[in-house]
Amino acid sequence: MKNRIVLWGAASLILACLVAVGGYFYFQPFSPDRGKYPVRGIDVSHHQRQIDWQRVAADDVAFVVIKATEGGDHVDDAFAANLREARAVGLAVGAYHFFTFCRPGADQARNFISVVPRDRSLLPPVVDIEFVGNCPRRPSPEELNVELSAFLRPVEAAFGKTAILYVTDEAARVYAGQIAGRPHWVRSLALWPGHDDWIYWQYHDRGRVDGITGDVDLNVLQGGEEKLAELFAPPPESISPETPLSP
Fold first, then answer.
1. What is the set of active-site residues?
2. The whole model's pTM is what?
3. Where are the domains of the chain?
4. How far apart, in whole angstroms, are the C-alpha atoms of residue 118 and residue 240?
5. Helix (H, G, I), strand (E, B) or coil at 127
6. Which CATH superfamily hosts domain 32-232?
């Protein structure tokens, strides 16, 4: 009995140490190799509250992707200010849409296009597809394909760029066929992604950046300054800010 108690005590101590070490590394600002991934960025929404963009730009941040819309009618109330102020300090800026499962894709496209201005350079539009915070009913892969296509066609036509898909691991497993063939934004916290088929890599979701109170997502870009300039370049001249949304 005494030996059993000692063994249980040792096992408990080891487990506690593993949890502590794991927690330490999770909450530490894990940083990918700067030589390989020199271009750093963040993504933000109203959850970051008031942001001092001048300080952000001075803290090794080159780009920011800002939440614009969600579903068919929700607009992030910090989007306009964040876009204006981040652009003013010289950051490469882009916008993302949280794709909901309970509104038609065409409705969601209209919402995004009506909110995000097209009069100046933008990073490619981003579509966030995940289960957390979404409608409880999960569409079948075939259903998602129909609605996602109804979103992507008009959005890509309006902005003149191929959209980037941010898909969490669980959603990626369910909808692997529907997200294939498009550029990805991967989420891999504290570990290198298992492949190089991505544009952005979110490597921390509780990072710290000067000018932001509290946690913020930290990302790197696949490629250097040239790749960032390519993504941020103006769309073809044939794409006008007045380009209508196709029915």
1. 130
2. 0.84
3. 1-30, 32-232
4. 8
5. strand
6. Glycosidases (3.20.20.80)
